[in-house]
Amino acid sequence: MATMDKYNLKNPAMKRILQEIKEMQSSPSDDFMSLPLEWQFGIAGPRDSEFEGGIYHGRIQLPAEYPFKPPSFMLLTPNSRFETQTKICLSMSNHHPEHWQPSWSVRTALVALIAFMPTNPNGALGSLDFKKEERRALAVKSQEAAPRFGSPERQKLIDEIHEYLLTKVPPVPQPGKPALSDEHSAITQPEEAARPTEHEEAIQNHERNEIVEEPPRHVPERPILGHEFHQPQPLAQRRRVQRCLLTWATVGLMMAIAILLLKKLMKSSGYGAVFLDDS
Hints:
The protein is α+β, with helices and mostly antiparallel strands. It folds into 2 domains: 12-175, Roll (Ubiquitin Conjugating Enzyme); 241-279. The chain contains 9 helices and 4 strands; from the N terminus they run αββββαααααααα.
């Protein structure tokens, strides 16, 4: 790796670059890797696309005004989405400085580049529009070897990035071998045929449930359950008797109170007699 002694470490751009190098080394990603020599990088093809499994190498050139001006990107690996060794047009590249934000970083740009690969090129500068089969074929070929580019020192970095990404990307199917798919289908078809359908599973589950539920069918024949079944009837009768007794007791108490009040009124001194005479 090139020494940093020849660079002005007090320059704001260099401070930012060194900060990003430290951040990327402390938090590596499975989707890309970048090393500082004009920011040599490699990215893995986006998942669930015709680029999946591919390894695509490239370069990032940072301007002297970075991070206040955007970097430029070019790919070195044939990929059928972007031209090789040509600065590609992206919203975060030097082709669109009006969209660039100083808070963005090299990591942000690489993540965005991966996301742009399966999109429609729409005639953008440096873009290509190939069939998915051709892109898959190039994705397979990209794993075989890293591209040859630049000095031996640079090539060493490219090879290091390639070896790292080989341990991260998933395998891709070999193009031009449909027999493999037919063989795979022939192997999987008997397995799928051996699997019970949803209707058969429902019948099997029903039969299993019937076997499990058979013993409780004889439970109501036990005498104790018959006794428990008739137990709530006398309890209801006792409650009705208790309510009747409580009602009669309340009526008797009210009558006794009325009689006592009447006697007290009759025995009152003179007032009761005068009241009776007037009436």
